[in-house]
Amino acid sequence: MKPFAALRAAAIVGLAAAAALPALAEETNPLSFNLSVTSDYRYRGISQTRLKPALQGGVDYAHSSGFYIGAWASTIKWIKDSGGDADVEIDTYAGYKTEVGGGFTVDVGFLRYNYPSNKLPVSANTNELYGAVSYGPATLKYSHSVSNLFGFADSKNSGYLDLSATFDVGGGFSLTPHVGHQKVKNNSAASYTDYSLTANKDFEGFTFGLGVVATSTDAYIGGKGKDLGKTGVVLSVKKVF
């Protein structure tokens, strides 16, 4: 190759590399962290913190192939209110999410709820398999316990079905309606339905939430005299980084 041709080839390679740099810089970081504060940690409509605030945080790794893994934790009160000895919930999960065509997305995975040293008569630690289908703003999800459910005896194979959606209403605001039904195996009295409507606002890198949560059940735990399933308002602020 003549010297001029070599220089020209080198220049072309250099320009191509330079052009590729912005694309590389714009790639999504697969690792993310989140931290939040909420006025009441409601899970499936039931307060986990005796209607009091909670501090929460997590870490997620989402591979470009669709596989993901993560962990999340929150302060809680319901275990100690039930006579146990755990003041934190630590969730670990892994799954696979992908588009299957026609605008549909499928998400399947495994989730373990860990309550370290909970010391309840029936361990509160729970394992669930889940599967979800999303189309447009809506997601239909089913979670199936492959262990006892949150300390209920003989409750393996309990299930939770929920439908939720997220609507962008402009100006950084979104609305998320939700309805779900928890069926507790061999304990129909503990089965119930929950509802919620949450408004979120993105501002300066934070997400502020205001939600109304309700259930079809009264949930009194540990003799504290509080209905943990009553209709309530939940305020939250979350940061993802």
Summarize the structure.
This protein has 241 residues and is mostly beta strands.
What portion of residues belong to β-strands? over 45%
The string of secondary-structure elements, in order, is: HEEEEEHEEEEEEEEEE
Unreliable stretches (pLDDT < 50, length at least 5) are 1-25
CATH architectural arrangement: Beta Barrel
Q: Strand tally, please?
A: 15
Distance between the termini: 50 Å
What integer value in Å does the Rg equal?
Answer: 23 Å
Mean pLDDT: 89
Plain-language structure description:
By secondary structure, the protein is mostly beta strands. It has one domain (30-240): Porin, CATH 2.40.160. 11% of the residues lie in helices and 52% in strands. The protein is built from 2 helices and 15 strands. It is globular, with a radius of gyration of 23 Å. Residues 1-25 have low confidence and may be disordered.
Q: What's the layout of helices and strands?
A:
Layout: H1 3-25, E1 31-38, E2 42-43, E3 46-47, E4 54-62, E5 67-75, H2 78-81, E6 88-101, E7 104-114, E8 126-135, E9 138-145, E10 159-165, E11 167-170, E12 173-183, E13 192-203, E14 206-215, E15 232-240
Antiparallel strand pairs: 1-4, 1-15, 2-3, 4-5, 5-6, 6-7, 7-8, 8-9, 9-10, 10-12, 11-12, 12-13, 13-14, 14-15
Features:
241 residues, 15 strands, mainly beta, 2 helices, disordered N terminus, twelve-stranded antiparallel β-barrel, two-stranded antiparallel sheet, Porin, globular
